[in-house]
TrEMBL record, chain A:
<dbReference type="Pfam" id="PF03776">
    <property type="entry name" value="MinE"/>
</dbReference>
<dbReference type="GO" id="GO:0051301">
    <property type="term" value="P:cell division"/>
</dbReference>
<dbReference type="GO" id="GO:0032955">
    <property type="term" value="P:regulation of division septum assembly"/>
</dbReference>
<comment type="similarity">
    <text>Belongs to the MinE family.</text>
</comment>
<keyword id="KW-0132">Cell division</keyword>
<dbReference type="InterPro" id="IPR036707">
    <property type="entry name" value="MinE_sf"/>
</dbReference>
<dbReference type="InterPro" id="IPR005527">
    <property type="entry name" value="MinE"/>
</dbReference>
<protein>
    <recommendedName>
        <fullName>Cell division topological specificity factor</fullName>
    </recommendedName>
</protein>
<keyword id="KW-0131">Cell cycle</keyword>
From TrEMBL, chain B:
<dbReference type="Pfam" id="PF01656">
    <property type="entry name" value="CbiA"/>
</dbReference>
<dbReference type="GO" id="GO:0005524">
    <property type="term" value="F:ATP binding"/>
</dbReference>
<keyword id="KW-0132">Cell division</keyword>
<dbReference type="InterPro" id="IPR002586">
    <property type="entry name" value="CobQ/CobB/MinD/ParA_Nub-bd_dom"/>
</dbReference>
<dbReference type="InterPro" id="IPR010223">
    <property type="entry name" value="MinD"/>
</dbReference>
<comment type="subunit">
    <text>Interacts with MinC and FtsZ.</text>
</comment>
<keyword id="KW-0547">Nucleotide-binding</keyword>
<protein>
    <recommendedName>
        <fullName>Septum site-determining protein MinD</fullName>
    </recommendedName>
</protein>
<keyword id="KW-0131">Cell cycle</keyword>
C-alpha cells in the first residue's frame, strides 16, 4: 500500500469520490420507490415458488452493484425430485442445482 | 464464550463507526470470528466504511422481522474470512426494531461468532439503547473536546441503567477510547489531556487513537484502518486495544506516524 502510494500521486480521495458517486446514484434512484433488489428478489422467488416448493433458508442472494453493470446472483437449493427432473431423470443424487447467475444490466 | 461489545458515544462524528470497523478487523486478524452490526437504522454507514456498500441485500430489520434468515443477511468480508457485517436498513426507521426481535438476533449472533460488535447510532434514544441493551462490554468513544466528554458521561449513565446486565445487577465492563488525540496540542494546553478526560469520566482507558490522516484515507477506500495500513499510528493503537480487550497487558502509549525523510520530502500539501 505505502509503496504504491509513493509511485502513484493519486491518493485515496478519487477512490472515495467514485465510491460515493456510485452508491449515491443507486440510492437516489431507489428513492421514492421500493428498493429494486427487494422487488426483484421477491418477484423472482414468487415465480419459482409457483412451480417448486423452495425452503426460504436454502436461498442465497448476492448482489454486486457496479458502474456499468450490476449482477444479481441467486443460488437456490432445489428439493431432490425437482433436481432429478431438471437433469432429465438420469441423475438422482444431484440435490442442488445452482441457478445460473443472471446478469442484469442496470443503467448507471 | 462469545462477547457482545457495543461501541457508543452519545455525540455523533467522534469515530464510532471507524472504531467498530477497526476493532472488528483487528479481532478477526487475531483469529477470532467477529460480526460487526450496524444499529444506525436509516443512516447506515458501516457498510461504506467496510467497503461492502455494493453487496447489501438484506439488513438487520429484515432479520429482526423474520423476512430473512441471519445467514442470508450476513456479508462476509472479502479480505478477512472471520469478519462479517450485518448492515442496517437505509429505508426504514428505528421503530421497526422490536425488543424481542433484536434479542433473538443477538442470541443467534452469539452462537455463531466469538465477538459481536454493535455500532451504536449517535444520540440517547431508542437506536442507541437497543444497541447497548445486550452488551457485555462497552467501548465509549470520546474526543478530547467538551461536548463529546459531556455526552459520553450521559451514555455511561445509560450503560449503568438501561442494559440487561445493569438491570440484573451484573457488571458491564466499560472502556474509554479517546480518539483524534493530538499530544502536541495537549502539551501546549490547547486540548484536554488524557488525564483530564479520565478524571471526569472515571472509566478505564482502552486506547488513545492519535489524530491521523490514515483514518480518512482508510474510509476513502472502504477499508478498516487496521487493515488498510497496519503500521500506521491509529492501526497500532487499535491493535493494542484489541490485545487489551483479549486480556493481555499492553503498556499504554500514543503511537505516532513516523515519517521517513523521503516521505516528508514528497508529502504534498493541499493548496
Amino acid at each position: 500500500m505505502s509503496l504504491l502510494n509513493i509511485f502513484s500521486r493519486r491518493g485515496s480521495a478519487p477512490v472515495a469520490r467514485e465510491r460515493l458517486q456510485l452508491i449515491i446514484a443507486h440510492e437516489r434512484a431507489d428513492n421514492g420507490r421500493s428498493d429494486l433488489v427487494v422487488t426483484l428478489r421477491e418477484e423472482i422467488l414468487a415465480v419459482i415458488a409457483k412451480h417448486v416448493a423452495i425452503e426460504p433458508d436454502k436461498v442465497q442472494i448476492k448482489v454486486e452493484r457496479g458502474e456499468g453493470v450490476s449482477t444479481l446472483g441467486l443460488d437456490i437449493e432445489l428439493p431432490l425430485p425437482v433436481a432429478a427432473r431438471l437433469t432429465g431423470g438420469r441423475t438422482e443424487s444431484i440435490a442442488k442445482e445452482s441457478m445460473a447467475k443472471e446478469k442484469q444490466a442496470v443503467a448507471a | 464464550m462469545s462477547k457482545v461489545l457495543v461501541v457508543t458515544s452519545g455525540k455523533g462524528g467522534v469515530g464510532k463507526t471507524t472504531t467498530t470497523a477497526a476493532l472488528g478487523a483487528a479481532i478477526a486478524q487475531s483469529g477470532s470470528s467477529v460480526c460487526v452490526v450496524d444499529f444506525d437504522v436509516g443512516l447506515r454507514n458501516l457498510d461504506l466504511v467496510m467497503g461492502a456498500e455494493r453487496r447489501v441485500v438484506y439488513d438487520l430489520i429484515n432479520v429482526v422481522n423474520g423476512d430473512a434468515k441471519l445467514a442470508q443477511a450476513l456479508i462476509r468480508d472479502k479480505r478477512l474470512d472471520k469478519l462479517s457485517l450485518l448492515p442496517a436498513s437505509q429505508t426504514r426507521d428505528k421503530d421497526a426494531l422490536t425488543d424481542a426481535g433484536v434479542a433473538r438476533v443477538m442470541d443467534e449472533l452469539r452462537q455463531k461468532f466469538d465477538w459481536v460488535i454493535c455500532d451504536s447510532p449517535a444520540g440517547i434514544e431508542r437506536g442507541a439503547t437497543l444497541a447497548m441493551r445486550h452488551a457485555d462490554v462497552a467501548v465509549v468513544v470520546t474526543n478530547p473536546e467538551v461536548s463529546s466528554v459531556r455526552d459520553s458521561d450521559r451514555i455511561i449513565g445509560l450503560l449503568d441503567s438501561k442494559t440487561i446486565r445493569a438491570e440484573k445487577g451484573e457488571t458491564l465492563d466499560k472502556h474509554l477510547i479517546l480518539t483524534r488525540y493530538d499530544p502536541n496540542r495537549a502539551d501546549r494546553g490547547d486540548m484536554l489531556k488524557v488525564e483530564d478526560v479520565l478524571e471526569i469520566l472515571s472509566i478505564p482507558l482502552l486506547a488513545i487513537i492519535p489524530e491521523s490522516e490514515e483514518v480518512l484515507r482508510a474510509s476513502n477506500v472502504g477499508c478498516p484502518v487496521t487493515l488498510n495500513n497496519p503500521l500506521s499510528a491509529p492501526a497500532r493503537a487499535y491493535a493494542d486495544a484489541v490485545r487489551r480487550l483479549q486480556g493481555e497487558m499492553v503498556p499504554m502509549s500514543v503511537p505516532s506516524d513516523r515519517k521517513s525523510f523521503l516521505g516528508k520530502f514528497f508529502t504534498r500539501r493541499a493548496a
